[in-house]
Amino acid sequence: MLDYKKHFSLKLMFTFLIFLSSTAHANSVSPNTQISEELKYGNLVSAQEELLAENITLKEDLITLSNELITIKNQINESKENEGIEFEVWVGLLLACVTLIVTGLGVVIALSAFFGYSNIKHTATDAAVKKSESLVEQAIQTGHFNKLIYSAVERAVYRDILSENDFPEDEEVSA
C-alpha cells in the first residue's frame, strides 16, 4: 500500500513540476507555443485523472483481495478444527489398545500359571490319595486282599517254614 502512495506522490510531484515549468515558460513564450503548452497541460491533467482512477481501482482490488485472503484463512482454520482425528491417529490408537490387551492377557496367564500349577499339583495329589484310600477300603471290605494278607502274615510269622498245604482254608468249611 505504501508503494502505491509513493508512486502516486512521485507522479503527482512530477506533474506539479511540469505544470510549474510550463506556466513559467508560458509567460515568456509566444501565443502559439502557449496553446501547445495548454494542450500538454490538459494531457497531463487527464493523465493525472486516469492515474487517480487507476489508483482507486487498485485500492479497491487490494481491499477485495485482502478480504478474500481473510476468508480463505478462516475457512482453512475451520476445516482444521472440524477435521477431527485422521486415519493414522486411529491406527496408532488401535495398535496401542491391542498391545495393552495382549500385555494384560500375558500377565493374567503368567499369574494363573504360577499359582495354578502349584494348585493343580496339590489338588491332583489330594484327589489321588482320596481315591486310592477309598479303593483300598472297598477292596479290603470285599475281601480282595485276603489271600495277600494271609500270605504276608504267614511269611512274617512262619518265615516261609510252612507250606500252603499245611493249613488249608477248606477245612473250616467242612467241619
TrEMBL record:
<keyword id="KW-1133">Transmembrane helix</keyword>
<feature type="transmembrane region" description="Helical">
    <location>
        <begin position="89"/>
        <end position="115"/>
    </location>
</feature>
<protein>
    <submittedName>
        <fullName>Uncharacterized protein</fullName>
    </submittedName>
</protein>
<keyword id="KW-0812">Transmembrane</keyword>
<keyword id="KW-0472">Membrane</keyword>
<keyword id="KW-0732">Signal</keyword>
<feature type="signal peptide">
    <location>
        <begin position="1"/>
        <end position="26"/>
    </location>
</feature>
